[in-house]
Task: structure prediction
Amino acid sequence: MKSINKILFAAFFIIITLINHSFVFAETETAVDLDKVMKTMLAVTLIIIAVVIWLFVVYSEKNDNEGILFKTPFKVFKQYITKMSPIEKESEMLLHHKYDGIEELDNRIPPWFNFLFYGTIIWGIIYMLVFHVFDDGQVQSKEYEAEMNQAAVERQILVKTGAFLNEETVTALSDAAVLLEGKEIFIKNCASCHGQNGEGTVGSNLTDDFWIHGGGIKNIFTVVKYGVPAKGMISWQTQLAPRKMQAVSSYILTLHGANPPNAKAPEGEKWEEPKTNK
Amino acid sequence: MQAEKFSYDNQVVKQFIIAAVVFAIVGMLVGLIIAVQLYMPELNFGIAYLTFGRIRALHTNAVIFAFVGNIIFAGVYYSLQRVSKTRMWSNFLSQFHFWGWQLIIVAAAISLPLGFTTSKEYAELEWPIDIAIAVVWLAFGANLLGTIIKRREQHMYVATWFYIATFVTVTVLHVVNSVEIPVGFLKSYPVYAGVQDALVQWWYGHNAVAFFLTTPYLGMMYYFLPKAANRPVYSYRLSILHFWALIFIYIWAGPHHLLYSALPDWAQSLGTVFSIMLIAPSWGGMINGLLTLRGAWDRVRDNPVLKFMVVAVTAYGMATFEGPLLSLKNVNAIAHFTDWIIAHVHIGALGWNGMLSFGILYWMVPKMWGTELYSKKLANVHFWISTLGIVFYAVPMYWSGIAQSLMWKQFTPLGILQYPNFLETTLQIIPMHIIRSIGGLLFFIGLFLLGHNLRMTAKQGRFIKNEEAEAAPLVKEIDKLKRGMIHRWLEKRPVKFTLLSLLAISIGGLVQIIPTIVIKSNIPTISSVKPYTPLELQGRDIYIREGCNACHSQLVRPFRSETERYGEYSKAGEYVYDHPFLWGSKRTGPDLMRVGKKYSNLWHYLHMEDPLSMSPGSIMPPYPWLLTENIDTSSTAAKINAMRSIGVPYEKGYENFANQDLVKQANEIAEDLIKNGVPAEPDKNIIALIAYLQRLGTDIKVNQPESKR
Result:
């Protein structure tokens, strides 16, 4: 019996240590989403239900009365964790106390109760050691730093993929590599309607001073992104990443004043860049 | 040995029972009103005295101290006499206790709606009432200990142990938490500031739950449950273990109310680990109660008393499992400041305290009137309506708590808050609040069934004012401490027992509170944090009077979702002049820690006059009276003096000039308001409140955040 005790205790200890290192400590907020919380809630609810059922089974009257005749492994286990005396033998367990008629039994403290009790104490000691002696756990200021760093990293990734680029925030780029990329995109996607050099065929001339939907990087980006379905210009936002739409729009700006051969006649209004304070 | 004849005093028990039922109705009615106000703010009828901020405290105080308190005293006076085989030590003290306690309740019922409050939860009553509470409580304690000392039973029963622990601990809690400097009749400032005040308050608040709502009820459970079931207590050894473990560990767990706050990390961790350690000792009471019913479960089916008790003990087990769960930081990060906590509290309050109280009343009243219960059927109806009420109350609140918390934390894929407008999250949970109030209504209706049933029971019986009894007198035995019998030995020695329990409950508090107050590094100072100006101080007292902290926290937790929403997270050094601290415990509205300079004066002016004008759909009630009430400048000097005496560095003699500064600042704000088109007057309370709100959380924006770590 002693050895079983030790094994059980060791197992309990290990479980507690494992719990220590997995989910109970740091709350990583970025990961809090509905799904995870709901799963946790469900798990907790199931645990509670399981515990209740377990208590119910372990202490149900019916099992009590069948006595020692049926020593199934379950009953042995049950007896081991509850150390409960059969109800028929209650009179032997009575203590000689009587308070206004209330008597007390001398039942042993259930071993499962002791496991729970001493287990939580050990857990508590480990917790304090981890956090405040070995500094292994994250106290809240560090946890916050980690969370903010994580958010900054995620933001960087988003910036790189151009997630924040839209018609409000877009700027014209003059980087050679970008313009080259823009040119490639232009040749591949735009040239069929706007001409190899932007001189305009089906689509409008992109090299003169006149713009149907306004000039400047923001307007061009808008037209590229959403298209002008009524006039046959298609929307590119599902095919080109924001970064690429920016590249091609920037490239289109460089075509201004190129005076290509066979240029289509001007359409729209003359565009003048609004003056901004830089 | 000749048996002695004596009688049990049922009179005082009867008085406490009547008071308990009456105040249960009052307290829960107020609860129902504030529950409805959360979706129908106009239910305060535009009367200042009925606003949520003020009567929420009335609800909590009424149900805790008036309903539960009176039940405790009824149960203690009934059971203690019987397990001690003696009459209460002093009839005078019994009556003094009864009438004193009721007077305190009346004083609370008047002073809280009038706005006299310390703002500290469950300790809102102002200093003269605090003193009265101490006096009456000590009278109860003297009567309790006197009765125990002159008992005829050799040993003290487990119920008595719990009563002793209750008395000792509540005394310590109340005295320590109520150390305050009066600034006038019904106005005071606590000597503790900011983080320290928060720690002391929640050491108190948590243990008010432990030693007012739990230990006396466990004591009563140990008497009334075996009596009603007519079964022996399951395990005497378990009683001993869980009693001492419970009272020793409970006292440490207070900081779990302050997780992710500006409280030092070590104190927070202690709160967490001791809460986890509390599971077993709490469950000790539950299993000892439930296993006492072993062999009597068939009777539970047709005995309403046992039914109430079984649900009560089960609710106790659930709440004491959930509590430690909520003390884990990752769970707390979701649950804190939300309705989840309200649900948790009400599982305990309605389930454990309410249902056990009803069980006890249904058992005790027929005994005291020498008759049977008037209607078992009615009691059964009461049982089911209450159980249903609890379910309808708790379930929606769990959902609303989690839903709102997730909305607060939700970021869009681009990393900005999905619900940047707090109000949106409030409106989302209104349907849940409606269902909750229906649950509350069901529970409330049950009270009338209870009242009617008890009245009819009393009517059909005859009240036994003095119940005759006899017992042999106590013989002094000289016994030595024997191995394995130490506790038996201790049970014969009430004074030693009392001192030992005092020791057990003192350690946790001392270890947490003393270092937080004494060791400077626990609260790193911030040089740019300055005391409030006189006008801001007056505004702060209006904030306290109106109970703004009932719905608005002043504590930004170190989470990205909170710093994005509100601004820099709260630092301990920012609160050093906050007597009292105003962190709050529930966010019905948004946090106000960093509200200063966020909106214009005009916005605040119009918002206080009518919140709907600035935030359509808001459930905040209007505060038009602030626009017409005058600032009480006569109290400024006294307030400055009081603050200086507890460590706020106002210059000597400043009290003489304080009002000049006040008027100057008020004029500036009023001018700004007038310039923007509202007819503001500089001497009105609204000006002071705006001054305070505009100051909130701005000190660290002035220059470098922390001077030393």
